[in-house]
Design brief:
single chain; mainly alpha; two-stranded antiparallel sheet
């Protein structure tokens, strides 16, 4: 599935709910569906700077594509990182670096997050792109 197809799927899923309380519940459910991150990856090196809650992000390269795993100690943040993983994981560094993450605005996520969570969202995207840049440079 392409990055845009994954984003369109998320937009469709969120459009089923008008009320933001229902959308927050969907985010929490998505976060709870994530597999727990292996304890070996819960290191200071994998903590994302700029997030109010703790978010660990692990990136591995598999056949030229980045595979992301993450965990957070906050339910909504866990859902946000789950969305980002759904969109970006399994793609090449170039695809990740060139992706226009339009789903964030289309589902109204940015406008319904507190300023600190919104900064955290930007930090998560930035970190995923930094991993893509690092893997691209390595190859």
């Amino acid at each position: 599935m392409s990055i845009d197809e994954a984003q369109d799927e998320i937009i469709a899923e969120f459009s089923d709910f008008e009320d933001w309380m229902d959308r927050y519940q969907l985010l929490i459910d998505l976060g709870n569906e994530q597999l727990p991150l292996d304890e070996q990856y819960k290191t200071d090196q994998n903590l994302i700077e700029g997030c109010q809650s703790r978010v660990w992000l692990q990136a591995d390269e598999v056949d030229g594509r980045l595979v992301f795993q993450a965990e957070s100690d906050a339910l909504i943040v866990k859902g946000i990182i789950a969305l980002l993983i759904k969109v970006l994981s399994g793609h090449t560094p170039d695809e990740i670096l060139n992706a226009d993450l339009y789903f964030i605005d289309r589902i109204g996520l940015r406008e319904h997050l507190s300023p600190t969570r919104s900064n955290g969202l930007l930090s998560m995207v930035k970190q995923m792109r930094m991993y893509a840049l690092a893997f691209k440079a390595k190859n």
